Amino acid sequence: xxxxDSVHTNIIIxxxxxxxxxxxxxFELDDNNFNTWWRTKxxxxxxxxxxLTHYNFRGRKEKLILTAKYGFTERYRLxxxxxxxxxxxxxxxKINLAYNRRDEIAYNSLNNERLQYKDPDGDAYRNLxxxxxxxxxxxxxxxxxxxxxxxxxxxxxxxxxxNEDFLQNKKNSLDYFQLSYQFNSDKRxxxxxxxxxxxxxxxxxxxxxxxxxxxxxLNLNFQAKKFIELKPRLYMxxxxxxxxxxxxxxxxxxxxxxxxxxxxxxxxxYYVIDGQNIGLGKLxxxxxxxKPRSMNLTxxxxxxxxxxxxxxxxxxxDFAYVDDQIGYSLNxxxxxxxxxxxxxxxxxxxxDIVIRAEYSFNKFGESGLFxxxxxxx
Length: 377
Description:
Elements: E1 2-4, E2 9-11, E3 21-29, H1 34-40, E4 46-57, E5 62-71, E6 73-82, E7 91-102, E8 104-110, E9 113-118, E10 125-139, E11 142-155, H2 157-162, E12 173-186, E13 197-207, E14 217-231, E15 234-244, E16 256-258, E17 273-275, E18 277-296, H3 302-305, E19 306-323, E20 337-349, E21 353-362, E22 367-372
C-alpha cells in the first residue's frame, strides 16, 4: 500500500511470516522413488520420525536442525548453520553431525536393478559422518563453499561375502577424510519450482587424503539450468549435468549412478545405471493451466491458512549416458545413450510442495504412469 503527498511517500508492506520453530513429521519411503516402492508396497521400507528446525536461532537468522528418524533407516542428525560470521555478511559456517544405521542395504546391481541384503541380526550397515563447511558469498547470487568431512562406514561379514568390493578389498570398514569445493550461481525466481532465471554449479571433491586407507577418488560435478518465459503462461526449462570420476577403482558404496534420488532420467524409474562417468540432459515445455492463486482456509492458523497453488501441463524429453568400466557385463543399460519422453501435470503448492504425475516412454517402448514429489528440473 502506497500513501503519498507532495513531499513524502510511505510504503506499507503486509506479510505473514512462517514459524521460526518448525516441527515437521517424517513419513517417507526408503526406495529409489515412489514408483519402485509401489511395485512391492513393502511397509517395512517406511521411515518415520521428526525434523525440528529453528529458522531464527539466537535471533540472527541462524538455523538449527535436529533430526530423529526410525524405520527402514535409523538416522540422527544435528545441523547448525551460521549465515554471517562477520559484519560484512560474506562468510558463513555450517556444522553437520549425522549417524545412520540400516538392517538392509543394496550391495550390488544386476540387470540394472538393485540387489538387496537384509541382516537377520540387524546392523547390516553403519555410517558416521561429520562435516564442516565454510561459505563465502561475495555477491548476492554467487556462493563459494569449502567442506571438510570425516566419514566412517562399516558392514557385516555377510555383505563382504556378497560383494568383496562393497568397501573395497574385502574390508568390513572404510574410514576417510574428504575435501570439496563448490561454486553456485543462483538467479532463479523460485527454488522449489522456478519459471524464470538460471542456476549453475561446479564442484570438485577429493575422497581420501591418504589417512586411514589408500582410498583416493576425485569427483568432478557440473550442472546448469535455464528457465525461460516464452510468452504469458508458456515456459521452457532445460538442464544439463555431468559427473566425472577419472579413477575406475571405486568401492561400490561410492560408485556413481543414475536412478538414485533426483539424479535420474524420466521413464527409467524402475532401473538403476551404475557407472563412473555420467551425462544427463533434460528439456521441458510448460503451460500454466492454473495461474498461482491462493485461498483462505478457515479454522487454521494464519501462517497455514492461506493455501497457495498452481497447475502446469508439460511435455518433456530426457537423455543420458553412463560410462561404466566395472560392472557393465551385469548391467547392459550402461555405455549406451538412453532417452525418454512424455507428458505430465505439475501441481505446485505452499511450503515448497510439488506433486508430479507423468506418463512417459523410454527407448524400449516401455511406458507407464509415474508419481514424483520434487520439481522435474
